[in-house]
Write a structure and sequence with these properties.
- By secondary structure, the protein is of the alpha/beta class.
- 31% of the residues lie in helices and 16% in strands.
- It contains 12 helices and 15 strands.
- It has a 7-stranded parallel β-sheet with strand order 5-6-4-7-8-3-9, sandwiched between helices.
- α8 runs antiparallel to α9.
- It is globular.
Length: 462
């Protein structure tokens, strides 16, 4: 078989090798690549070719521009699911000494708040020092913490190439005493400690990768549970103005590169004037930030309108890259508990819950429509259409007996005007499909007095 490794010499010359690579090549495995942004070397591609991967799924926060992104999770969703701490409170200090001092004070206050949490949390400060040929080295930072900050050495860990105090240490163990971690470059990939709350950098040279990874270390939420005190749901960054003259723009760019969109990066990076305490953003700063966010939103909306709806816009509905509904990976968070049977549903055993009784009646009308061969209760993460604020997931997707696709979005009367952008993009999707797709904006009774079943019938008959 072509592509298999063979012996090039010896008594088995010309025979196929009994190797793991050959076994994989015969199986054509599905390969999952974690931290896929690092898999860009020739060796990475050679491995995938040698095992003849049938499919490659990449997990990364920073996909390549030409990646076929199947699913994107925004920072806002991760925040809502209590996976990450946001916003990031950024304080710029006149000197590296003040940045360290305020990091110590911040950790102390967070520690006091954490004592009232039901889960054990020990806030940790992650400090980025400079390399040995510069001023603020690991040794200088450690000395400052001990002598000026009155921090016991047993509460300080150093994580560098030559000193690995974190090896074999479980930072989540209540018996662990470590409250400060000093490093120079990014901690090794896979290092994880959701107790890291404060990022403090006294380094004047900033590797983009190092800043990105160190900042990412303080974003993870302890135990993936929202904390009772708001301050414990936030992350903190302290930098010296002398070392970081453009801290806001640098961290903004790093957040965007980490997967935040532009609006999220602005919304969740909050520069504050000293002091950071007591965790309140000044009214003037808040008003300015809200104004900037509104401008970003307006610009995003204008760009969306021009790209899709301007007279000169070149829009095409392509079926080359389509979404496949797979019963084995149906991401329904809640299931329909009623007794009505839906044999035409792509997974008859599981149907995602409906938002209300009217939506259920719409599903029944789709099920009983004679032209519908199969249909799916669509949920977030499945078939979506772009809107300026993100992705619109219509309620139902159906296959008709003539091969066309039908998408149905059911709307209660009180939401029709508010959700007009969804209707616009759905109708654009239909117009540019070359007759292969239909979009129905269904209501309980339309302006002509037709019920949902009649709306379906008339739409399909066109």
């Amino acid at each position: 078989m072509p592509g298999l490794e063979i012996h090039s010499e010896g008594p088995d010359k010309g025979r196929i090798k009994k190797s793991c690579a050959n076994l994989m090549a015969l199986i054509r495995p599905l390969v999952i690549v974690d931290e896929a942004h690092n898999a860009k070397t020739d060796l990475s591609y050679d491995v995938l070719n040698r095992v003849r991967a049938g499919c490659v799924i990449e997990f990364t926060a920073t996909p390549a521009v030409d990646s076929n992104v199947l699913h994107h999770v925004s920072a806002s969703i991760l925040k809502d699911e209590a996976m990450i701490k946001l916003p990031i409170i950024l304080a710029e200090k006149p000197s590296w000494q003040e940045a360290l001092t305020d990091s110590i004070l911040q950790r102390t206050q967070l520690d006091e708040l954490a004592r009232n949490e039901k889960d054990f949390v020990r806030p940790i400060v992650l400090i980025q020092a400079e390399s040995k040929d510069r001023e603020v080295t690991v040794e200088v930072v450690e000395k400052y913490l001990v002598e000026q900050g009155r921090i016991e050495k047993s509460r300080i860990a150093i994580a560098t190439g030559s000193q690995r105090d974190l090896d074999g240490v479980n930072l989540l163990d209540p018996a662990c005493k470590i409250e400060f971690v000093i490093t120079v470059q990014a901690l090794k990939e896979g290092w994880d400690c959701p107790f890291a709350y404060v990022f403090c950098s006294v380094a004047t040279v900033h590797s983009e990768k190092d800043v990105e990874q160190l900042l990412g270390r303080v974003l993870r939420m302890p135990w993936a549970q929202k904390r009772s005190h708001p301050a414990l749901n936030w992350a903190y960054a302290f930098v010296s103005k002398a070392c970081w003259p453009h801290a806001v723009s640098l961290l903004h760019d790093r957040l965007v590169h980490m997967g935040f969109d532009e609006v999220e990066a602005i919304r969740y990076l909050k520069p504050v004037e000293p002091p950071v305490f007591p965790f309140a953003e000044p009214p003037r700063e808040r008003a300015l930030r809200e104004k900037i966010e509104s401008y970003w939103a307006a610009a995003a909306k204008r760009g969306y309108q021009q790209s899709l709806f301007a007279p000169e816009a070149l829009v095409e509905t392509s079926f080359d890259y389509s979404f496949a509904f797979d019963p084995e990976s149906y991401p329904a968070a809640r299931h329909y508990p009623g007794g009505f049977q839906f044999p035409k549903h792509f997974d008859p055993e599981i149907v995602a819950a409906f938002d209300n009784d009217e939506e259920l009646e719409c599903a029944k009308a789709i099920e009983m429509c004679p032209h519908v061969v199969q249909w799916a209760r669509n949920v977030p993460g499945m078939f979506g259409l772009p809107v300026w604020s993100g992705t619109f997931y219509p309620d139902f997707v159906a296959q008709l007996d003539d091969g066309r696709r039908l998408v149905v979005e059911y709307k209660g009367a009180h939401l029709i005007e508010h959700d007009q952008p969804k209707k616009n993009v759905g109708e654009l999707w239909e117009r540019t499909s070359g007759g292969k797709a239909l979009f129905l904006w269904a209501t309980k009774k339309d302006s002509s007095g037709r019920d949902v079943a009649r709306q379906l019938e008339d739409k399909i008959a066109r």
